[in-house]
Every structure is written in structure tokens, then in C-alpha cells.
């Protein structure tokens, strides 16, 4: 990931182009940057690689009826935002074509690991001439930029793969959260991947929602520093609407009272396999791998594969961002 200063320069490019105060709430395009939560299929342009579990059935079964590279059973948040504003689903930027109504630069290039933000910005800059010619400032001032979330995969690599200590990973937070805008982190201590791999027999390690305190504290710390950075950016760009999308609070509420969001299950995985705990998650038989299978009613589930959410959850999150109370200020105000 980019260091703090580099990320700030990258965001300067984006924020100077974001929607100005007072402009009518109608967007001509949506531009998305991020990780596997946002990816609409950049890695699957020309066909999903065989090693990519997210490129195998049953991913995509609910809406597209085939894998598209989206890490869900169907659409993701940026898809629902686009639909709300009457725009086409954001196409993968690597696919080529007409991007006058936006594109998605987000990419997952390894399991739970996204392409660097500066690479995504480079793709964005390369396609701009074909989109807006010599009048990009005016054109992009009517666009919605979704920047992130970022940081989650940095922590995943440190905690899940490198098995670094929590103290060491917390030391990275100021670098990874500073100078970035957009959505915050999910409560990673509530994700079945973490609950299964780092579960303990000590009740004090869990909060009243059944989530791992230490890991949720990491997400909270990241989000607090991110919100501080956003406050600084708002002072620097007072005529730009800079919004903070609160993944953490909404997903926590969806776990606590799933029925309030039209769901039945909070911490149980829809697409997975049993054998390692009570969450239907097995790290050796993840969704898309041999031994895993999907539930027959994903619309009742919050969590799709242990670390990504279902289409039903993403629809609800998009609604919370558009109308509030989970985006400050709401996208649609």
C-alpha cells in the first residue's frame, strides 16, 4: 500500500474532482477504487483464472448466475449505488470500452489482496482522455468517487498469512489509515474467518455480539484515524463533499439484529463448509473450493464466504450510505 504522503497526493487528484457543494444530487458517473469488496471483475477480464476461488461457482449465482469476479453471490455496493442513480453497473476498467458513465478500478490480484492504490489511479488517469477530453474538471465534478475501503487487506496479510503479532500490526495503522478517504473498515473480529482461525476458549476475548474484541479494536483504531484524516481533508477542500461510509457500525448492527435488515443469520457463513467451528467456515474448504457448498437462501445471510458479504447485505449497506445513517453526510441528501 502507498505510504501516507503518497496516498495523500493520490487523494488530492481524486478529491479535486469530486462533487462540489450545491450541485444537484445527480451523478453522471461512478468511479470506484478499492479491494475485493468493490471489485466488479478486473481480474476476470477474458475469463477468471483457475486459481481464483472467487472466480468459481457458486460465486455470482444469485444475480449473474455465473462468477464475474465479484466476491459475493451477486452484486456489490457500487453496483447498487449505480443502479440508484440510473447508471450501468460499473464495468471493470481493464475490460476496455465506453467509460463515460464510470468504471471500477478495484481489483483483487491474490486471495484477499488488492492491487496498489497508485496502480488503480494510473488506470484511471489513462482512461480519462477518452472519457472527458479537455473538459475533465467539469465532467468529473458531477461524478461520485468511491475510494476504498482500503487497509483491510493489509491487516489480513499481516494477521492471517504472516501471523504477525497484534502489537506489530497496530503499529502499521497510522501509515495505512492516514490520508485516505471513503469507507472505513468492517469489524474484522466479527468475520467468521477470524473467529475460526483465532477463536479462543476465554470468554473475556469476546464482546457481547460474539466477536473478538482485540481484532475489532484494531478496526476501531483504524477508523478513528481515518475519520481524523477526513476532517483534515475537509478543511483543505471546503467546497468538496467528502463522505465517510461507516461499515463498522452498520455491519455490527446487522450482526446484532439481522432481522432489522431483512436477514436471519449474523455470524453464520452461507458458502462454506463445517468442521472447524460453529460458523460453517473451513479454511481448507473455502467457498469455491472442493468440499464447500452454498446455502439455498443467501438472501437471509449477512456473510457469504467468511470474509465477504452477501448481495442482500451489500444492498442494505448501499441503502444506508445513500440515505443514512451510515454515511456522513449521506450520499443522497
TrEMBL record:
Which Pfam families does the record cross-reference, listed alphabetically?
Lipase_GDSL
The cross-references to Gene3D superfamilies, in alphabetical order and at most eight, read: SGNH hydrolase
Report keywords, A-Z: Glycoprotein, Hydrolase, Signal
Q: Output the SUPFAM superfamilies linked to this UniProt entry.
A: SGNH hydrolase (SSF52266)
Molecular-function annotations in GO: hydrolase activity, acting on ester bonds
According to the record, the signal peptide region is 1-24
Has the keyword Hydrolase been applied to this entry? yes
Question: Would the keyword NAD turn up in this protein's UniProt record?
Answer: no
Q: Taxonomically, which superkingdom?
A: Eukaryota
Please state which protein family the record places this protein in: Belongs to the 'GDSL' lipolytic enzyme family.
Name recorded for this polypeptide: Uncharacterized protein
Organism encoding this protein: Sorghum bicolor
The uppermost taxa in this organism's lineage are: Eukaryota, Viridiplantae, Streptophyta, Embryophyta, Tracheophyta
Amino acid at each position: 500500500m502507498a505510504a501516507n504522503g503518497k496516498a495523500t497526493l493520490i487523494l488530492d487528484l481524486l478529491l479535486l474532482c469530486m462533487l462540489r457543494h450545491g450541485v444537484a444530487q445527480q451523478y453522471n458517473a461512478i468511479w470506484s477504487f478499492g479491494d475485493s469488496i468493490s471489485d466488479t471483475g478486473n481480474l476476470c477480464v477474458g475469463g477468471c483464472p483457475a486459481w481464483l476461488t472467487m472466480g468459481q461457482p457458486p460465486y455470482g449465482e444469485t444475480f449473474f448466475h455465473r462468477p464475474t469476479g465479484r466476491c459475493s453471490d451477486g452484486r456489490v455496493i457500487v453496483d447498487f449505488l449505480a443502479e440508484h442513480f440510473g447508471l450501468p453497473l460499473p464495468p471493470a476498467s481493464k475490460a476496455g470500452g465506453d467509460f463515460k458513465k464510470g468504471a471500477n478500478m478495484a481489483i483483487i490480484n491474490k486471495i484477499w489482496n488488492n492491487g496498489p492504490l497508485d496502480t488503480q489511479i494510473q488506470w484511471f488517469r489513462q482512461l480519462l482522455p477518452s472519457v472527458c477530453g479537455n473538459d475533465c474538471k467539469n465532467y468529473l465534478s458531477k461524478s461520485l468517487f468511491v475510494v476504498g475501503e482500503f487497509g483491510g487487506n493489509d491487516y489480513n496479510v499481516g494477521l492471517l498469512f504472516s501471523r504477525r503479532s497484534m502489537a506489530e500490526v497496530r503499529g502499521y495503522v497510522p501509515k495505512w489509515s492516514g490520508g485516505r478517504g471513503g469507507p472505513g473498515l468492517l469489524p474484522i473480529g466479527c468475520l467468521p474467518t477470524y473467529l475460526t482461525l483465532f477463536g479462543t476458549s476465554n470468554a473475556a476475548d469476546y464482546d457481547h455480539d460474539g466477536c473478538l474484541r482485540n481484532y475489532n479494536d484494531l478496526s476501531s483504531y483504524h477508523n478513528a484515524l481515518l475519520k481524523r484524516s477526513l476532517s483534515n481533508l475537509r478543511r483543505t477542500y471546503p467546497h468538496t463533499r467528502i463522505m465517510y461510509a461507516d461499515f463498522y457500525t452498520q455491519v455490527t448492527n446487522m450482526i446484532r439484529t439481522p432481522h432489522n435488515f431483512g436477514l436471519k443469520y449474523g455470524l453464520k457463513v452461507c458458502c462454506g463448509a463445517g468442521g472447524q467451528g460453529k460458523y460453517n467456515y473451513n479454511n481448507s474448504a473455502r467457498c469455491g473450493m472442493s468440499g464447500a457448498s452454498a446455502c439455498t437462501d443467501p438472501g437471509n445471510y449477512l456473510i457469504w464466504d467468511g470474509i465477504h458479504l452477501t448481495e442482500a447485505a451489500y444492498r442494505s449497506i448501499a441503502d444506508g450510505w445513500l440515505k443514512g445513517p451510515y454515511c456522513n453526510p449521506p450520499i443522497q441528501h
